Amino acid sequence: MSVCQQRDISALCPSVQFLWGPTGRDCFGHGFSTRSGGVSYIPTLSSLNLFSSSKRRDPGAVVAENRRRLALHGGFHPLPLRLVKVNHASAVWVLGKPEPESYDSMVTNQRGVVLAAPGADCMPILFADPIKKVIGAAHAGK
């Protein structure tokens, strides 16, 4: 049975793979997901599509389910998850200030916020300042 014929998409795929960074969760939790364990109508995305754009046309419910799965396996709630809007430029969104139309990186000192940047054929970069308690995520590449 194909995904589009299922009513309950949450039971279709195996667990999300989440790889924790070397400092663990004690200071700034950080990690990387793989492309498995989600759902997608687009075979080339291998299932865990976390972004919706004109090039990635999974329905919003499918993307929301993948974000829910990522949060479940990453140990956080999906609502504070913020994803970089990839435009292959240099704009930065400082959370708490007005959100730009597009940006490739985000920084925040707000507790409980989860930042994410896609990798694929580009490089996700994570930043943390344990003194000022600031974190950042960036999408690097063209």
From TrEMBL:
It comes from the Eukaryota. InterPro entries: Cu_polyphenol_OxRdtase (IPR003730), Cu_polyphenol_OxRdtase_sf (IPR038371), Cytotoxic_necrot_fac-like_cat (IPR011324). Gene3D superfamilies: CNF1/YfiH-like putative cysteine hydrolases (3.60.140.10). Keywords: Hydrolase, Metal-binding, Transferase, Zinc. Transmembrane segments: none annotated. It catalyses: adenosine + H2O + H(+) = inosine + NH4(+); adenosine + phosphate = alpha-D-ribose 1-phosphate + adenine; S-methyl-5'-thioadenosine + phosphate = 5-(methylsulfanyl)-alpha-D-ribose 1-phosphate + adenine; inosine + phosphate = alpha-D-ribose 1-phosphate + hypoxanthine. Belongs to the purine nucleoside phosphorylase YfiH/LACC1 family. PANTHER family: PURINE NUCLEOSIDE PHOSPHORYLASE LACC1 (PTHR30616:SF2), UNCHARACTERIZED PROTEIN YFIH (PTHR30616). This is Uncharacterized protein.
